[in-house]
Design brief:
By secondary structure, the chain is α/β, with parallel strands linked by helices. It folds into 2 domains: 163 residues, DHBP synthase, CATH 3.90.870.10; 152 residues, 3-Layer(aba) Sandwich (Rossmann fold), CATH 3.40.50.10990. It contains 14 helices and 14 strands. A 7-stranded mixed sheet has the order 5-4-3-6-2-1-7, with helices on both faces. Helix 13 links the parallel strand 13 and strand 14. Helix 1 crosses helix 6 and helix 2 packs across helix 4. The termini are far apart.
Length: 366
């Protein structure tokens, strides 16, 4: 259980942020700031945060959100504070407006950029892990408070080190928790295995189709979960077709593995994906929408897939994909990709621009 403790600390912190509650951020064992998610901010919460920390709150935003607001080049996160003191209701309203990519451009003439701190990247990363917009409200503690001090506020505490290590540690902690035969339409000979991280987070699934020969490179597909495409049959993407087509292809070849990875919307989550759709309806392409929200073009990680392949005894694959980034990710982590197998489906009027953007701007091969 000991290796899971840092994972649990991160999990508790993300849950508290999603409930619009505050968390304590630490660095090297000392409390450095208190934090709230910007998208659920209220004047009451902002006032309480300032009182607990003993300092005026500032707004931390991802490099991409700062770039979208015209205050950065996309390279570093930004910290903003008001030039003049205002009442919490005014500050809360402006913080929310700066966080909300669906609002019109906010006038920043009364705000100034300030130097960032070493723990700001961790604060932004935590909002992403929580599935929230990558913008946080932070109030530095006036004096460093060691962990366990009597003055410490009774709230979840997590370290910057734990946050930044979480994606790696969670992936490495994956273990099998359940498995069963699962005949599906494209192949009656299927077996599904569920993998869960040690903090009890979202499961990833492996679908073993047919009888793959582990002595040879296995035909494999890495498929990121897509509620709208896989379950609802959305025409805005080609995910549903890719999922069903991959299972059929694996069955045709006598066997293979499909890894169903819990990283909706290229890793930004379902709610943020729906926000991106709204921005696309206003004229942005899929990458522009992600950046307006404050995310990178693709936030997915493939270390969970590597861990699952290792558990399954698969060291070499023929990868069913149009995305060279997936090939590169597996190679970086020691999985041999002996062939990239194209996985192309016809466009429709609703996803034609989406597919064109992936080809032109993300390097997808069609």
């Amino acid at each position: 259980m000991k290796p899971a403790i840092p994972l649990v600390a991160v999990d508790r912190a993300t849950a508290e942020l999603r409930r619009a509650g505050p968390i304590a951020l630490t660095l090297a064992g000392e409390r450095v700031a208190l934090m709230l998610a910007a998208e659920d901010l209220t004047p009451k919460a902002l006032t309480a945060l300032a009182s607990l920390a003993g300092s005026a709150p500032v707004l931390a935003m991802s490099a991409r959100r700062a770039e979208a607001l015209g205050i950065g080049d996309g390279g570093e996160p930004a910290l903003l504070r008001p030039i003049a003191a205002r009442d919490p209701a005014q500050d809360a309203a402006i913080f929310i407006a700066l966080a909300d990519p669906l609002r019109e451009q906010v006038n920043l003439k009364d705000w100034q950029s300030i130097p960032t701190q070493p723990w700001v990247n961790a604060a932004i990363a935590l909002t992403k892990l929580a599935g929230l917009l990558p913008i946080a409200v932070l109030a530095e503690t006036v004096e460093a408070q060691t962990l366990g001090a009597e003055t410490a506020a009774p709230m979840p505490s997590v370290s910057a080190e734990e946050i930044l290590a979480y994606p790696r540690d969670a992936a490495r902690s994956l273990k099998r928790v359940a498995e069963a035969d699962l005949p599906v339409a494209a192949s009656e000979q299927c077996h599904v295995i569920a993998f869960r991280p040690a903090d009890g987070g979202s499961e990833h699934l492996a679908l073993i189709v047919g009888r793959p020969d582990l002595g040879r490179p296995v035909l494999a597909r890495l498929h990121s979960a897509c509620f709208t495409g896989d379950l609802l049959g959305s025409l805005r993407c080609d995910c549903g077709e890719q999922l069903q087509g991959a299972i059929a292809r694996l069955a045709q070849e006598g066997g293979g593995v499909l890894l169903y990875l819990a990283q909706e919307g290229r890793g930004i989550g379902l709610v943020n994906k729906l926000r991106a759709y709204q921005l696309q309806d206003d004229g942005l392409d899929t990458l522009e929408a992600n950046r307006r929200l404050g995310f990178e073009d693709d936030e997915r990680l493939y270390l969970p897939a590597v861990q699952m392949l290792d558990d399954l005894g698969i060291k070499a694959v023929r990868l069913l994909t149009n995305n060279p980034s997936k090939v590169d990710a597996l190679l970086r982590h020691g999985i041999s990709v002996v062939e990239r197998v194209p996985h192309v489906f016809p466009a429709n009027p609703h996803n034609r621009r989406y597919l064109a953007t992936k080809a032109a701007r993300s390097g997808h091969l069609f």
